[in-house]
Specification:
Keywords: Cell membrane, Hydrolase, Membrane, Metal-binding, Metalloprotease, Protease, Transmembrane, Transmembrane helix, Zinc. By secondary structure, the chain is mainly alpha-helical. It has 27 helices and six strands. Among the domains are: about 110 residues, 2-Layer Sandwich (Zincin-like); about 180 residues, no CATH class; about 240 residues, no CATH class.
């Protein structure tokens, strides 16, 4: 909104577009095609000429953001003064300017006050609030309620006068209200609540009102005449601008209400934990929902007001009763909460785009660089994956309180998060088909939702499957939150780069960056049908995998997805005495992975002889050119494809064999297969040189062991293998489920306890295998860093 408001000020638009016009009219700036040096010099001059415009724009947005933060902080700091004013009856959140008749309470001069004071001190010690707050009495209040407020160094609680009488007549109600207000102090809800109010009022006064006024003024005056015709419709289109303003205002309002509802329910749960459900049963009776007080049943407003009460800042009595019965359900997220989190992330992403693009323009003189997209994508991806990981973990933890949901219900969590993100990311696209020379808005409309949305949903579902498997394996054994923190951190490190790649690819103009492209067919041998098909299918490229392969966390993320859960299962299982159930499955996965890698090596040894028997010498000896692929390239692509097929077979075997922890074990087994296939690649090319398969004049039987090449190939094999591992895993799970349904009486009779105890030799072999896999992945990342660094510099320059 600040960025759009910038262009609605005539002086800003005049300066910005005037600067652009002068730059394009400068005779020194052109885009010559004679040499790359001339092109770079012209681009440098253009960047230096346009920099004042972007600096001015960045200052405007920065001042607006600082003003928003300042007003929010001022509202929070002044909330004690507002609370001590008398509140209106119609709008409880809007106090008037008259002082409330408040006095210190209780007074220890009389016996009754001394008894209440001692009781309040005891309640503070019980709840754990230290130092105790300053108690105040509202003598003119007509409700039996309380209110916690104040700065961190001076907390205060207002007690209504009718509540004091309940100390003698209804001690349960008095205790419930006091416990609820003290729970707010213990949970630090005062700061969260009044910061939410402060941000809301700052958003209205600093962002919404100036944006609305300037939009209407620009539409009334016809818009600044200096703006190019392609941008006028975007900047002064009143329906789109008002729609954006209304949508963002409703979004911020709903978020504020959700924060306030959560604080109230959290205080109820804390009070219930102190007193138990019987002692906390008076909370709904004491803390009556002001939105429902005095309303009758059957009125025409009840049906319409039910939805507004559910979305208001005060929780409904039904919700409070449910939380009091089962306080742990408060931590179980709903699909609507994930939908809201996705919308917030989408809006923030679209806003961060403009800011980061402006920053990159100022620093490096290039707009829409891939490095900028990856930077924004990693930040937003970390937030989304962290939210999804915590939501899945808490849902699994709370599943024992209710009947176990069907497996299809797990799709609702990633679907809600992805759907909300796509909706939020589409919100700032005010118009369809408009390109602005001064912003990052692309002329692609909403068509990117159809091509990019399914890919993002598929990735979120894969992440959810891994999270559900890990949570179900760790929660029965884990104690505390260390396992949760480890799983969330692993999810962020492993899945956030994939989201960043998705984000950078979905911005590829009007083309579909998610469509795989088949390889080229060699000119020599194109008349052989199967050879042409082999070269095209094995040489396919997929842009997300290409970009992901240049990120340092590609192999590290895949490694952590099997290392962290299995390590936690071994450590936690050892503490609980249940690790014997995990080690046989790890050994099975390693054996199957080693068998898959050995099969690739055996096939690689036989591959030169098969190629010599199937293809004529003219095809085998064609080395290829820069424009045309030769047989060595097809030979290498074929070996990579065989390694991917082997990983798929291993994944299917593991998922059909092991009963639990399948995602982690599948990744472990395929990681060993990829490592063995990568080492076998050297033997494959050594055999090709020894048999003079490529037409060399002399035999070269030495093994071409080049660490940098092996590191690149390991990453290629591991990433491309995912295309075969994921569907093969699903097929293996389906095969196992079908077999279980047919042999239900015989399946499951063999348990880990029937196996003989692991000796130290097996333990050391298992540890050695895991250490070798980890060391290989880390070494491959380190060896590939120099080549990746050159690619990063290209992305940074644009």
């Amino acid at each position: 909104m600040f960025l759009q408001t910038y262009f609605l000020v005539p002086q800003n638009a005049d300066f910005f577009f005037g600067t652009f016009s002068r730059c394009f009219q400068d005779p020194r700036i052109g885009f010559p095609q004679q040499s790359s040096h001339a092109f770079e010099e012209a681009r440098r001059l253009m960047s230096a000429c346009q920099q004042p415009a972007f600096v001015h724009q960045a200052q405007w947005v920065g001042i607006g953001f600082l003003l928003l933060c300042g007003v929010s902080l001022a509202c929070y700091l002044s909330h004690p003064w507002w609370v001590t004013r008398s509140r209106c009856e119609r709008f409880p959140a809007l106090p008037s300017l008259r002082s409330r008749p408040l006095s210190r309470f209780p007074s220890k001069d009389d016996p009754d006050g001394r008894e209440i004071a001692e009781y309040l001190d005891q309640q503070c010690r019980t709840v754990g609030v230290h130092p105790p707050p300053v108690w105040m009495l509202d003598a003119l209040a007509r409700s039996s309620n309380g209110l916690a407020f104040g700065m961190p160094w001076r907390r205060r609680v207002i007690i209504d006068a009718p509540l004091v009488r309940c100390f003698r007549t209804d001690r349960d109600v008095f205790r419930a209200v006091i416990a609820h207000e003290l729970a707010h102090l213990r949970n630090r809800d005062v700061d969260k609540t009044y910061l939410a109010f402060g941000i809301w009022w700052a958003f209205l006064t600093v962002a919404v009102m100036p944006f609305g006024v300037l939009t209407l003024h620009s539409a009334w005056s016809g818009g600044p005449p200096v703006i190019p015709p392609g941008a006028v419709r975007y900047l002064v289109d009143v329906p789109h601008a008002v729609g954006l303003m209304a949508a963002l205002t409703v979004l911020v309002h709903l978020i504020r209400n959700s924060v306030l509802r959560a604080r109230e329910l959290h205080a109820d749960a804390t009070a219930a934990a102190q007193r138990g459900y019987e002692g906390a049963a008076a909370i709904p009776r004491a803390l009556l929902d002001p939105a429902t007080a005095g309303q009758g049943h059957g009125s025409a407003r009840v049906a319409l007001g039910r939805l507004t009460r559910r979305l208001g800042y005060w929780p409904t009595p039904e919700k409070r009763q449910r939380v009091l019965r089962e306080p742990a359900l408060l931590t179980r997220p709903t699909v609507w909460e994930l939908l809201g989190a996705g919308v917030v992330a989408g809006v923030f992403t679209a806003s961060a785009d403009d800011l980061v693009d402006t920053l990159f323009r100022l620093l490096w003189g290039k707009l829409n660089t891939r490095m900028g997209d990856l930077t924004v994508g990693c930040a937003i991806g970390a937030a989304l994956t962290g939210v999804l990981a915590a939501a899945v973990w808490r849902t699994v933890a709370a599943s024992d309180l209710e009947p176990r949901p069907p497996r299809a219900a797990w799709l609702a969590l990633p679907a809600g998060l992805v759907g909300g993100y796509l909706a939020g990311a589409s919100l700032p696209l005010l118009t369809d088909g408009t390109e602005l020379p001064a912003t990052t808005l692309e002329g692609q409309g909403f068509g990117w939702l159809l091509r990019a949305g399914p890919v993002l949903l598929a990735g979120a579902v894969c992440a959810t499957v891994w999270l559900v498997s890990v949570a179900r394996g760790l929660l029965p054994r884990a104690r505390g939150r260390r396992a949760l923190y480890a799983v969330v951190a692993t999810s962020v490190v492993s899945f956030a780069p994939w989201f960043a790649v998705w984000y950078s690819v979905r911005r590829t103009g009007r083309s579909n960056g998610f469509q795989p492209l088949l390889g080229d067919a060699p000119d020599i041998g194109s008349s052989i049908g199967w050879y042409t098909a082999l070269s095209r299918w094995t040489g396919f490229t997929w842009q997300p995998l290409t970009v992901q392969g240049r990120l340092p966390f590609a192999l590290v993320g895949l490694m952590l997805l099997w290392l962290v859960p299995l390590a936690l299962l071994l450590v936690v299982g050892k503490a609980s005495g249940t690790h014997a159930d995990v080690r046989p499955q790890i050994r099975t996965a390693l054996l199957l992975g080693l068998a898959g890698g050995a099969s690739v090596i055996v096939t690689a040894v036989a591959l030169p002889f098969l190629a010599r028997a199937a293809l004529p010498p003219a095809v085998l000896h064609y080395p290829g050119t820069q424009q045309d692929m030769g047989f060595p390239g097809v030979y290498w692509h074929t070996y990579i494809a065989l390694a991917c097929v082997a990983q798929g077979a291993v994944a299917m075997s593991i998922s059909a064999t092991v009963p639990r922890h399948r995602p982690a074990l599948v990744l472990l087994g395929t990681a060993l297969t990829a490592l063995a296939a990568d080492l076998g690649r050297a033997f494959a090319f050594a055999m090709a040189g020894c048999t003079r398969l490529f037409g060399a004049s002399v035999r070269q039987c030495s093994v071409p062991f080049v660490p940098e090449v092996l590191a690149e190939d390991l990453r290629t094999i591991a990433l491309r293998g995912l295309a075969a591992v994921i569907p093969a895993t699903l097929l293996g799970v389906g095969t196992r489920a079908l077999a279980q349904s047919r042999t239900a009486t015989q399946h499951g009779t063999r348990t880990a306890s029937g196996r003989r105890k692991h000796d130290r030799t097996r333990t050391w072999l298992l540890a050695t295998a895991l250490i070798v896999l980890v060391a290989a992945d880390v070494a491959a990342v380190a060896l590939a860093l120099p080549g990746d660094h050159d690619v990063w510099k290209t992305w940074l320059r644009g």
